[in-house]
Amino acid sequence: MTHTPVGWHVELEFKEEDDQHTRAAALVRLPDGSEVRAHGRASRHQVDANQPRVGEEIAGARALNELAMRLLSKAHEEIDTASGRTSHPIHV
Asked: What InterPro entries does UniProt report for this protein, alphabetically (predicted)?
């Protein structure tokens, strides 16, 4: 069987709300045309050094983690719909 390579493009956008809070928005467009979105947030403690890149990494990781969980839920719904039964949870 020949497989056609499929790619997913994930977009991450960041917004610094102020010098202590960073938000991230994640979006993946799937080959069927659907989109899955998720968000993450990071807060810097006032005694920590201001490192915007670290805030982006934390907020981005949290957004991607939420995105992964949403994709797992979407997959479960599709399995259940196709099989007519309730599937077992997919554990991360």
From this structure: Rv2632c-like (IPR015057), Rv2632c-like_sf (IPR038070)
Angle value at C-alpha 11, between 10 and 15, nearest 5 degrees: 150
**Residue 87 in contact with residue 79, Cβ under 8 Å?**
yes
Listed in sequence order, the residues at least 6 apart from 65 whose beta carbon sits closer than 8 Å to its beta carbon are 40
Contact 81, 74 (CB under 8 A): no
Pick from 19, 7, 23, 30: which is nearest to 63 by CA? Answer: 23
Helix, strand and coil in the chain, % to nearest 5: 35, 30, 35
**What is the tens place of the pLDDT at every residue in 31-68?**
888 999 999 999 999 899 888 899 999 999 999 999 99
